[in-house]
Amino acid sequence: MPAPDRRPRRLRQNAAIRELVSETSLRPADLILPMFIGAGLTEPREITSMPGVHQHTTDSLLRAAHEALDAGVRCIDVFGVPRDEDKDATGSESWNPDGVLNSALAALRREFGDDLLIMADTCLDEFTDHGHCGVVGTDRYGNAVVDNDATLPLYQQMAVAQARAGAHLVSPSGMMDGQILAIRDALDAEGFQDVSIMAYSAKYASAFFGPFREAVGSSLQGDRRTYQQDPANIRESLLEAQLDIEEGADFVMVKPAMPYLDVLAAVAEFSPVPVAAYQVSGEYAMLQAAASNGWLDLKAVMMESLLGIKRAGADQILTYFATDAAKLLRN
Ligand code: PBG
């Protein structure tokens, strides 16, 4: 047997040399924590399929946000869960300044000022009684369709209400064509030039969103395949990201993360703006479930999954693990 003349193991032989050649590292500030505020709760309610994740009251939301900031997280993404009786066909509760999401944004901004960035989810699905991300109309053949252009003015109202409440960033996640331009125009017209837009650019019609539907008490029947992307495709992700950048997105995002790392890498390759990835509810749930069976080491897979997403090209990672991962990184 000839001795190998190339020995890559040389650079792995101890911790010091492994650290010397390490290409990717995670920082607490890379992580963005998605959080849920529930209407009418007297105490936080744990989401069964997402252990450790809650629908918060205002008090528990502020406490959890402090915990995230103390661990080094600099941005949270807030989703509102209204009462069923406050849902309607257009999702009008979403632009009510006293609605569940906007009042939570205001409380957060009062509490944290500019120390913690407050990002708002800018989508109607939590607020509509049919659960779609836009208004439902009828096409010329009488079929129900999610009406793109009728939805855009509603996104504008929602984004402006969020900015008024104190959001530093808005994050349109509804996959309507033209939503970034519409929102940028509306924010600018109201004097919110400094509010940033994180565009959910490549968002797939994914079954990995399953636990999120419980998290927000979704009313959805059917699916979102006429507006979210086909998991078979990558070209349209490149187009979506390019259009969002042209329309004024300050960040673009790929979602989910782990099954779409090729998409993330391809977007990161050309994007002139920061590229975020969203490790979604189903990705979180499957790691938690396996760990609770003793099949995976939770801390290890949490950190490995985040490192892999970062290595693939994410500048920021939205993850329900944000606080826990940031604490581990601190130690
Ligand atoms: C819709 C929205 C969804 C998620 C974030 N925003 C669900 C969907 O599109 O059906 C999913 C997040 C997750 O699964 O963690 N506004």
Computed CA radius of gyration, to the nearest angstrom: 20 Å
CATH topology title: TIM Barrel
State the order of secondary-structure elements, H for helix, E for strand. Answer: HEEEHEHEEEHEHEHHEHEHHEH
Counted by DSSP, the helix tally is 11
Can you tell me the residue ranges where pLDDT is under 50 for at least 5 consecutive residues? none
CATH class: Alpha Beta
Largest sheet: 8 strands, parallel, barrel
* Strand element count: 12
Strand % is 15-25%
State the helicity in percent bands: 25-40%
Distance between the termini: 46 Å
What does this entry look like structurally?
With 331 residues, the chain is of the alpha/beta class. The protein has one domain: TIM Barrel. An eight-stranded parallel barrel has the order 1-4-5-8-9-10-11-12, surrounded by nine helices. Strand 6 and strand 7 form a beta hairpin. Helix 3 runs parallel beside helix 4 and helix 4 packs across helix 5. The model has no long low-confidence stretch (mean pLDDT 97). It binds ligand PBG. The site of ligand PBG has 10 residues, from loops.
Question: Brief overview, please?
Answer:
With 331 residues, the chain is α/β, with parallel strands linked by helices. The protein has helices at 15-20, 58-70, 100-112, 148-165, 179-189, 210-215, 235-247, 261-270, 281-292, 298-312, 322-330; strands spanning 31-38, 45-46, 54-56, 75-81, 117-122, 136-138, 144-146, 169-172, 196-203, 251-255, 275-279, 316-319. It has 11 helices and 12 strands.
